[in-house]
Design brief:
Shape: globular
Strand order of the largest sheet: 1-2-3-5-4-6-7-10-11
Number of helices: 20
Structural class: alpha/beta
């Protein structure tokens, strides 16, 4: 067979496989969802393996919130992960509320939600996602793990389209969902009427090393400090990060950390074997902007020898609750999909024992892309490292090709590092006539969190003008928080001379710190904020916002206890101050 004939034969086979995904689709039946009569529930049945129907089928749960005004079309939104369930849909979903003329559809992609892939190795309480655990998970899932890549999900979406009786529809995705949405749009360009990509994954850099995240520190941190917002904190937040990375490369950063109970313990960050600590703490700010506000001050303090403010970020980031169950996010599906989609330097035929060396060599070869981080920061906790133990490797990853010329909106949080603005810009260049909306004050996942972004989605779907500057005022870059000094000697007297003035000033710093940092704890789902040097603060709302301080300390040797109430303009109340020696009040 000539090379040309072989290419024609392969193309014909591929097209037959694609069409097979639509031929089996039957019209879907919907009923009212139990307990949510405004939402309709249905089931999409798809083949596990389109090349071998005898292997059985998968039942994917689908939910639809019908249009609340004259129907203009259907908007399907894909969840992220990989592994995140798309359902349940809330009748008050802010995205759906913004587009009342559209049916709003979400579904659990294969291996997620009610039909989640599971494995004891990763689902057990306290399990860590080491390569050994990932490999064990692959064994527990079994050979069917090979049918959970993004290509299969794209074919499922086309079955969903047919089951909904649609010729075309508006397709959106969040985070990893943008990868699948791009996959579908490339495979079925005529079936997409509009494309919405929120927190965009660039398939060109989907290689398991996450270089865009690491490199984005060079843009995200200066943006956080632009406009002299860090004038009392630091002149160069990237330099502070670089100092910490160098310091923790060979020796751990030790310090005193306050727990959620208010007690103080010794703790450490970084050092040999823990080079992923600092990137993880920084990444936590993607999902909790309150933590990102604390970062410049905490990093500056740590670079100057005071690790306690950074240790508080560790407490908050590590205390955000138990891992969600597989029905909410499936770790097994995450690895099955990621390892099949990531461009790693090995194939499924490469022996497992040869892969770690290939992963290390690949990370070393791309070291410059991680700056100011290093390959030592990037590789240990990377998906590429975990995938060294997963038998299957990339078979048909998405290529960074052109997207259909349809109305397209891309959204990027200005403080999002895991899917940074640079990734959205790269994908926008492949989408003719697209709109890129940057939301300065947002982190990861924009839709539903800012009205300005939801309004631009509505404008896109309605054919109205889309403003890419719409969020500059409504969602400005957050204001960083200065870390208090470690001890009284560095506190300037205020209101009185000498130690009395220093204690009074330190007490006011504690009050201010509780107010400024409370949103970091709330963003992590915590009911209390640990003090930098001990104690806790809690926000209550029974009679208007209140902050209850309990031995809360921002400066070593000075703590406060009491309650402050917000009257609409400021916090008022009284606190008892416990200072060194007899300096109480």
């Amino acid at each position: 067979m000539t090379r040309l004939c072989m290419l024609i034969a392969l193309a014909t086979t591929a097209m037959a496989t694609v069409l097979a995904g639509t031929a089996a689709a039957a019209p879907m039946d919907f009923t009212r969802c139990p307990g949510r009569p405004a939402v309709q529930c249905g089931t999409l049945v798809v083949p596990l393996d389109r090349a071998d129907p005898a292997k059985g089928t998968l039942s994917l749960h689908v939910e639809r919130l019908p249009a609340r005004s004259a129907r203009r079309g259907t908007f399907v939104l894909l969840a992220g992960g990989p592994g995140q369930a798309g359902t349940p849909v809330s009748p008050e979903d802010p995205v759906a509320m913004a587009i009342p003329g559209w049916d709003y559809v979400m579904f659990d992609q294969r291996g997620t939600g009610r039909a989640a892939l599971r494995c004891r190795a990763l689902d057990a309480r306290g399990a860590s996602e080491t390569p050994a655990a990932v490999g064990k998970c692959a064994e527990q899932v079994g050979p069917n793990r090979a049918f959970y890549g993004s290509r299969e999900s794209a074919l499922d979406i086309n079955d969903l389209r047919a089951g909904l009786g649609l010729e075309s529809f508006a397709l959106g995705g969040v985070s990893y969902g943008t990868y699948v949405a791009q996959y579908y749009a490339q495979m079925f360009p005529t079936r997409v009427s509009h494309l919405v990509l929120d927190s965009v994954v660039d398939p060109a850099t989907f290689n398991g090393l996450d270089a865009p995240f690491f490199a984005s520190a060079n843009a995200v941190l200066p943006a956080l400090c632009a406009g002299r917002r860090c004038r009392d904190i630091t002149s160069d937040p990237v330099a502070d990060l670089t100092t910490l990375l160098a310091r923790t490369a060979s020796t751990a950063l030790h310090g005193r950390r306050t727990t959620l109970s208010g007690s103080v313990v010794r703790s450490s960050i970084g050092g040999p074997g823990n080079q992923g600590d600092l990137p993880a703490l920084l990444a936590a700010g993607d999902l909790d902007i309150g933590l990102r506000r604390l970062w410049p001050g905490a990093a500056r303090a740590a670079a100057s020898g005071d690790a306690s403010p950074l240790m508080r970020i560790l407490t908050i980031a590590a205390s955000s609750g138990a891992p969600p169950p597989p029905t909410e996010i499936s770790s097994a599906l995450f690895w099955a999909t990621t390892c099949e989609d990531s461009r790693v330097p090995w194939t499924s035929a490469t022996p497992l024992d040869q892969r770690p060396a290939l992963a290390q060599a690949n990370a070393d070869a791309n070291a410059a892309a991680f700056a100011p981080f290093s390959a030592a920061n990037a590789l240990p906790d990377s998906t590429a490292n975990g995938c060294t133990a997963w038998p299957e490797a990339a078979t048909d990853p998405l290529q960074p090709g052109p997207l259909p010329q349809v109305p397209t909106l891309l959204l990027a949080g200005g403080q999002d590092m895991r899917t940074p603005t640079a990734s959205a810009q790269a994908v926008a260049a492949r989408a003719p006539g697209s709109f890129l909306l940057q939301v300065p004050g947002a982190g990861h996942s924009v839709l539903g969190s800012t009205t300005c972004a939801d309004n631009q989605l509505a404008n896109l779907l309605a054919g109205r003008r889309v403003s890419t500057a719409a969020c500059n005022r409504e969602s400005p870059t957050p204001w960083p928080v200065q870390a208090p000094p470690a001890g009284l000697a560095a506190v300037a007297p205020s209101g009185a001379r000498g130690t009395a003035g220093r204690v009074a000033h330190a007490a006011r710093m504690a009050v201010r710190d509780g107010v400024d940092a409370m949103d970091a704890a709330a963003g992590a789902g915590l009911d209390r904020l640990p003090g930098i040097r001990g104690g806790t603060a809690r926000q209550l709302g029974s009679f208007g916002p209140q902050i209850v301080y309990s031995r809360f300390s921002a400066v070593r040797g000075v703590s406060i206890t009491g309650t402050l109430r917000f009257n609409g303009r400021s916090f008022q109340g009284s606190v008892r101050v416990n200072g060194p020696g007899a300096w109480d009040g």
